[in-house]
Amino acid sequence: MFETEPGLVAGKSFWDIEFPKGHIGVKSFDAELIDEDGNSVPLYDTYLHHWFAIRYIENVTVASMRGGSKVPPKNYDGFIFKRNQGMCHDFILPLYWGLGVESRGTTSNLPDPFAVELHNPAEIPYGYEERWLFNILAIDTRGTQDRKGCTDCRCDLMNLPKDFYNVTKGIYGEPLTPDYKGGLLCCQDNLKCKLRYGFEGPKRKLALRYKIRWVDWDESQIPVNFYVLDSTDKIKSNGSTSFHECQVEFTIPANGSKDSPHVQKTKIPMQKGGYLIYGTAHLHSGGINATLYGEDGRTLCTSIAKYGTGNEAGNEKGYAIGRSVCYPKPGSITIKDGEILTLEARYESGYLTGAMGHMHIYLAERLPHDTLTS
Question: For the segment 38-95, what is each residue's pLDDT rounded down to a tens digit?
């Protein structure tokens, strides 16, 4: 649970969250923001920018010396982070599960017999335990001058410190310049978005309610690999080594044509392929859809935004309240090892900062014995 107030940005990490124990297969993982009475919080009151469930293994002796596994580490001694199979460099987009405003209306169910295999004792070093943390970014927009601008993390709407551009680094450690007009770096914990003159509102406590569905692991389960693909991905080289420099977010300029959408597009070589089991997108409000194409131009998955029409939580007018999900018949869509995929994220035209265009896919390396491949 964490506390917010009107205009406040809450960027929080919660270590060693409650998680099923033992060698398991996770079938779904869903989450939403609630108040301290357990009621769903409308997006126009508090905007859930994102929640990430991140996997790591920790040395139990080091954790006890620090004061327990839930105490935030000052450094990462005794830690091994276990990111998803996506290609982004280093610790960029490391999540295993997580979305944003579309969370309530986007299913994460994996069809039988597929599941995400976790806590395999053969993969955990002696003296370590596998654990999970939540990273959450929520923006309390009650009473703000510009709700949409606040949810886009516009820098000119935040109470940035005077030396912000002198001391703030980009996601790869590069100096940040005033050309950076909005995005994650202007939505840091405890910054505050401008309020309407004279507005006063109460503080309140919020929490992320989550539900995990799992089965005990056995030979009947088929493991899947999870990938987060980013439409800003750029292949860079460092000598003989190449890496994927994902920028995570991008800006849509104000001078686009009203008659055509903005398209953020990239090509992503897949080192390891598999059978596509599930796919969906993460985009912000204003996003239309995201499509993943194969090397031959075939459509692998298109995830379309659903927008709210009312006032109640889960149907907020003007907000992206869900994404469609791709469930191809297992074996019908195959991605080859080394295949170069194309990812396109489409947004409505108009100035937007901090836009994201991610595709989440699960790939299986094998199929059930009774499934015919094409």
Answer: 999 999 999 999 999 999 999 999 999 888 899 888 888 888 999 999 989 888 999 9
What pTM did the predictor assign?
0.94
Distance CA 178, CA 155 (A): 9
Question: What is the amino acid identity at position 77?
Answer: D
Q: In the beta sheet, which residues pair with residue 269?
A: 340
Q: What is the pLDDT of residues 266-303, one digit of tens each?
A: 999 999 999 999 999 999 989 999 999 999 999 999 99
User: 59: Cβ–Cβ under 8 A, 6 or more apart, which residues?
Assistant: 77, 78, 79, 127, 128
Provide φ and ψ at 210, rounded to 5°.
-135, 155
Q: Which two tokens stand for residue 53?
A: 């469930």
Cβ proximity of 184 and 148 under 8 Å: no
Q: What percent of the chain is helix, strand and coil (3-state, nearest 5)?
A: 5, 45, 50
Question: Which 3 state secondary structure label does DSSP give 215?
Answer: strand
What is the three-class DSSP state of 155?
Answer: helix
How far apart CA 202 and CA 142 sit, in angstroms, is 10
- pLDDT confidence of residue 372: 45
Environment class of 29 (CB within 10 Å of its CB; exposed 0-12, middle 13-18, buried 19+): buried
Side chain identity at residue 269, one-letter code: P
Least confident of 3-7, 45-49, 239-243, 320-324: 239-243
Q: Which tokens belong to 174?
A: 């590069």
Residues near 373 by Cβ (< 8 Å), separated by ≥ 6? 275, 331, 332, 334, 367
